[in-house]
Design a protein that fits this description.
By secondary structure, this protein is α+β, with helices and mostly antiparallel strands. The protein is 36% helix and 17% strand. The chain is built from 17 helices and 17 strands. The chain has helices spanning 2-16, 26-35, 62-73, 101-115, 122-138, 148-165, 173-177, 181-188, 197-208, 216-234, 249-256, 266-278, 284-289, 291-297, 302-314, 323-329, 352-355; strands at residues 44-45, 50-53, 89-90, 95-96, 259-263, 335-339, 341-344, 347-350, 364-373, 383-400, 405-413, 420-422, 428-431, 442-444, 449-455, 462-467, 513-516. The strands form four sheets. Strands 5, 6, 9, 10, 11, 12, 13, 14, 15 and 16 form a ten-stranded antiparallel beta sheet that branches. A three-stranded antiparallel beta sheet has the order 1-2-17, with no helix packed on it. Helix 1 (2-16) packs across helix 4 (101-115) and helix 3 (62-73) crosses helix 4. The longest helix is centred in the middle third of the chain and has 19 residues, at 216-234. The relative contact order is 0.14.
Length: 528
């Protein structure tokens, strides 16, 4: 955990040339001259009291620093994912400030590889991505012991690549310790069982108990006992509203997800109702019996046919129609419950309209669905296959079937034919302006998985897709899962340049760095 934090600070400090954090400087360049390596990066003393440092392959130009910081400042993450990244970016000085341990964890796990897209030479960029991929792999909650040796070999190659491009001063003990992490996992188990994020968060709570700075221990003990007593008593009082005790996650979801009753047009209602029928298990026998007819009529009149079919079967004295099918046969109420926020499956969702006024992004969704594929328009050999679909939630509705309610999301989906691609580094990119089939908008709320989108730093209309893991509780059920933070890409960048000795250590397309000579005179304090 702290290795990841220190490596992240060194990496970002060196890339952005943050004073006090960078591992590059006049002394680092002089060390390389003394070692007889990379003499093209030798510092040049100019007239006056400043020294010119040629731009190294890891040096960012001012425009690239602006692009890097602008990307991070524009990131909006889901609720509970991390702190507000925008508050960590200083656009005036082009640097990151006040990075906490979990902020560094978030950057190394997913955000840093996205922020450096389009900056730095390709070899240096891929090396940094490899390092982030390594930290993402070792922080997984499920690790195959047979793959630990592979992780060991990959981190050795990654460190060798870092040594090719970064100065020797970059490699302090913390960077060296990364090579021992796979072995540590082998003996001690997964990293997430031993990290201290929860302890550090709880220390912040304990610090908030302090009212008298002369007696901090007494304040912490007194407030802790009082809170425990109130929380214990509240469990035996019905409908008690505690004061001073933090609300549970379920209560916070309910208090934020207000709803209103709205009427919707009949065509949209029929579309939502058809999706419910098409994806409900008890209706499958009726679907399979009319497969050929469905291919011709599709969803235009299936709902009315299904209603007549159930009414006919109910007229028989001995029927086995369940209550669920009876109510599904009738169309839902024209008035639906419309939510601006909804918690389900361990995620908390918002509509895109709500996200436009918020500092978080909870409207991105992904769903894996079975779809019909054909090679050409005249192809008669149709194939069903699973595909990933990406979109944005526009409305959150609860369809009222009198005896039960079904939550659905009305989404704007991205067209998979020209709106989704995977680049050479394994990043999934989507064009949110390319809308898919407007007649197929609905999914069950339970089918959705949350994603969030980051504008591609390379510019254009593309956005990078980043997935997240469930963090909240479902309504009534605890989401007891062991899902890890998903990877930011689908594969590890290749390391074909490991034996390439023709490395351009100096960037010709980037301005160098001027270092002012420190003329501060330190005076010894006289003893009295």
């Amino acid at each position: 955990m702290h290795i990841e934090k220190n490596v992240c600070e060194s990496l970002i400090g060196t890339l952005l040339n943050i004073p006090g954090k960078t591992k590059d400087g006049e002394n680092a360049r002089l060390d390389m001259v003394a070692m007889g390596i990379r003499e093209s990066l030798k510092p040049v003393s100019e007239e006056g009291k400043r020294t010119f440092l040629p731009a190294a392959c890891y040096t960012l130009s001012r425009s690239e620093k602006k692009q890097f910081c602008s990307t991070l400042a524009g990131v909006k993450v889901p609720t509970g994912y991390s702190s507000n990244i925008k508050s960590l970016v200083q656009m005036k000085d082009l640097k990151l400030i006040n990075l906490k341990s979990h902020d560094c964890h978030t950057l190394m796990q997913q955000l840093l590889p996205v922020a450096i897209r389009g900056v730095l030479p390709k070899e240096v960029r891929n090396t940094i991505i490899r390092l982030c991929y390594f930290f993402n792999s070792i922080c997984s909650k499920i690790i195959d012991p047979s793959k630990l040796q592979q992780l060991q070999d990959e981190v050795v190659v990654t460190l060798c690549l870092l040594e090719k491009y970064f100065p020797p001063a970059f490699f302090d003990v913390m960077v060296h310790l990364t090579v021992h992490l796979p072995r540590e996992i082998k003996f001690c188990g997964p990293v997430w069982l031993r990290w201290m994020y929860s302890m550090e968060r709880y220390m912040k709570i304990l610090k908030g108990y302090v009212r008298n700075r002369h007696r901090p221990e007494g304040c912490i003990i007194e407030c802790y006992i009082a809170e425990e007593a109130v929380e214990f008593c509240s469990k035996y009082l019905a409908n008690a509203r505690t004061i001073g005790v933090p609300k549970g996650i379920e209560e916070r979801i309910e208090s934020r997800s207000g709803f209103k009753v709205i009427p919707i047009d009949y065509k949209t209602l029929c579309e939502a109702h058809y999706y419910v029928l098409q994806n409900t298990t008890v209706v499958d026998p009726y679907m399979s019996k009319n497969e050929k007819w469905l291919q011709a009529e599709h969803k235009r009149s299936f709902s009315s046919w299904f209603k007549r079919k159930i009414e006919t079967e109910l007229a028989r004295p001995e029927n086995t129609i369940s209550q669920q099918i009876r109510w599904l046969a009738h169309e839902p109420n024209r008035e639906v419950l419309s939510h601006s926020g909804y918690g389900i499956g361990g995620y908390y969702y918002n509509t895109s309209d709500h996200d436009s006024r918020s500092t978080t992004q909870n409207s991105g969704v992904m769903v894996e669905a079975e779809s019909l594929h054909m090679s050409t328009a005249k192809d008669k050999n149709l194939i069903y296959a699973n595909m990933l679909y990406y979109g944005v939630i526009e409305d959150i509705w609860e369809l009222n079937y009198t005896q039960f309610k079904i939550p659905v999301f009305r989404c704007k989906w991205v067209d998979n034919k020209g709106g989704v691609k995977v680049d050479e580094n394994g990043f999934t990119l989507v064009d949110l302006n390319k809308e898919g089939d407007p007649n197929d908008q609905f999914i069950f709320a339970s089918q959705a998985k949350q994603v969030f989108y980051v504008n591609d730093p390379n510019g254009g209309r593309w956005s990078v897709v980043l997935t997240t893991k469930p963090k909240l509780y479902d309504r009534g059920d605890v989401c007891d899962n062991i899902e890890e933070t998903p990877s930011f890409s689908r594969g590890l960048p290749e390391s074909d340049d490991i034996d390439n000795e023709d490395v351009a250590y100096v960037r010709e397309d980037c301005e160098g760095i001027y270092v002012e000579e420190d003329t501060t005179i330190r005076k010894k304090r006289k003893r009295t």
